[in-house]
Amino acid sequence: MTGTPVSRSRQPLPEPVATPQTAPYWEMAAAGVLALRRCSSCSAAFHGAVDCCPECGSGATGWFAASGRARLYSYVIVHRGEGGFTERTPYAVAVVELEEGPRMLTGISGIEPTPESLVLDMPLQVAFEKRGGYALPVFAPAEGVQG
Amino acid sequence: MTPVAIVGAAETERLGRVPDASVLELNVEAARRALADCGTSPAEIDGIAGAFDPRQVAHVLGVRPRWIDGTNVGGCSFLLHVRHAVAAIRAGHARTVLVTHGESGRSRVGSPPRPPDPASLPGQFEMPYGARAPFTRFTLPALRYMKTYGLTAEHLASVAVAQRRWAAGEPRALRREPLSVDDVLASPLVAHPFHVPECCLVTDGGGALVVAGGERAAEARAVPVLGAGEALGAPLIAQMPDFTRADVAARAAADAFEEAGLGPGDVDHVMCYDAFAHLPLMGLEAMGFVEPGEAGDLVAAGGTAPGGSLPVNTNGGGLSYTHTGMYGMFAIQEAVRQLRGEAATQVRDAEVSAVLGFGGMFTTASVLVLGWDAGG
Fold first, then answer.
1. Does position B338 have pLDDT exceeding 90, yes or no?
2. pTM, to two decimals
3. pLDDT tens, B131-174?
């Protein structure tokens, strides 16, 4: 039938799927909280999917709310996106070091993805990007975040 | 210890674009050529290893193994296979082991699909951020390394330039045209700070090795395995302990050199896994050839290029020779050619070669020290 608009098939961006052990992480993210685990035996804080302390092997760990403050540890600016990310290029893939110590891979929001804007060690604050039924923790420049 | 050696080695006849061969066919072709290289029949093979599917490869070849290693930890898997084969031969579990690689990285013929698993660790904590392809993850430590040591964009580009100079002398290299630092920096970005020539090729091809001990290890073209190591780190790149140091490579190299009773100063030739241009820098430092932060100056000054003091990636590497996806097999192949005196870019008097492979970004590393200990 003529006149039917040709739909450009947009590939969806990938969503995570929680496991029983990571469900609290994603539930807390949906509530606007970045979650970390802390070992009740040795007090190590870690960004981990499984209830097992990477420092001492203890299975007695619990979730706690991280401050959400971090510094920019390293990044790349992707110019050749895959799938749904093709339309996002250029975009930053970053690794941030959280105030509590652990590092995590994340995205950057609220700032141009350029080498000039993204300065290593700049202070960042967690923000959340809706992705399907999930809220993804991403990071924005700390001064740009309203309390 | 009983000497064990790589007695046979060969690559597929064609590298690059091989759209008429499946992954299985590439493995089998490489195997048949490696067997022919050392005059060995499939009936003599009693051990099989490979990262694709050694069951299929063995069956097609008519090999009936009593020792099997299907380790797949990424691009360095074949270095681990060699190490495991050496141990198996010394233990009497096998006499003659065939290690094969074939990958249709470009044409994707008969390639097992790799659907993303959104509940896996990468599926939850990397892929939602557009971090899946190696150029979005393997590359992540570079900017932190550059800031820490003052490595410049020109330093990084000089890795690609040095290797292209080797590739110019290697007829089988896919990229042989001259390349300058300015050319690299004027090329399109794949993922800042990496330009196209600083990222590996994506090709089809394969290679295979025959590993044996006893009298065979003393054959004229046999290349003894003097030492080997393997190490495992964090599966998620963000949890790599130190972005300025490839700790897995350092650990694997320490074990390999200790077993060989040698050190970096005894090495004449190096193969250093180079899916991206920062890897030879971090690899040379981790293996102890230079102090942390010094590799960039060495490479920029031509120290690893033809005529330099430390020949590195003499086939052109993954950046210019070939990169099927799991490059480690080709690094071993070039080390064997150099030590046999059969390389296109032959390094004079090469007696000891160190080969480093990475797998799954910086998750796994393995090091082989090959050749002859002049003191022993």
1. yes
2. 0.96
3. 999 999 999 999 999 999 999 999 999 999 999 999 999 999 99
> Rounded to a whole number, what is the distance in Å from the CA of A2 to chain B's nearest CA?
36
SS3 B93: coil
Size of interface A-B (CB pairs under 8 A): 116
Q: Beta strands B67-69 and B47-50: pairing type?
A: parallel
> Residue B41 belongs to a domain with what CATH number?
3.40.47.10
**Domain membership of residue A43 as a residue range:** 19-65
Q: Is residue B294 part of a domain?
A: yes
Structure confidence at residue B117 as a pLDDT band (50, 70, 90): very high
> Are A78 and A136 members of one domain?
yes
Q: Name the β-bridge partners of B69.
A: B49
DSSP per-residue codes, B121-165: HHHHHTGGGT--SHHHHTTTHHHHHHHHHT--HHHHHHHHHHHHH
CA angle, B354 then B93 then B7, to 5°? 40
- B67 belongs to a structural domain: yes
Query: How far B195 CA sits from the closest chain A CA (Å)?
Result: 10
Q: Are residues A142 and A75 in the same domain?
A: yes
ipTM: 0.95
Which residue of A76, A88, A131 is in closest CB contact with B140?
A76
Domain count, chain B: 1
Task: For chain A, say whether B196 makes contact (Cβ under 8 Å).
Answer: no
The residue among A15, A37, A105 with the most chain B CBs within 10 A of its CB, best to mutate, is: A105
Residue type, A76: V
- CATH number at A118 reads 2.40.50
Contacts of A73 in chain B (CB under 8 A): 144, 243
Interface test with A, best of B124, B146, B194 (most A CBs within 10 A): B124
Contacts of A109 in chain B (CB under 8 A): none
Instruction: Determine, yes or no, domain membership for B16.
Output: yes
Higher local confidence (pLDDT), B153 or A145 = B153
Please check whether residue B4 is in contact with residue B210, taking contact to mean a CB–CB distance below 8 angstroms. no
How many domains would you assign to chain A?
A: 2
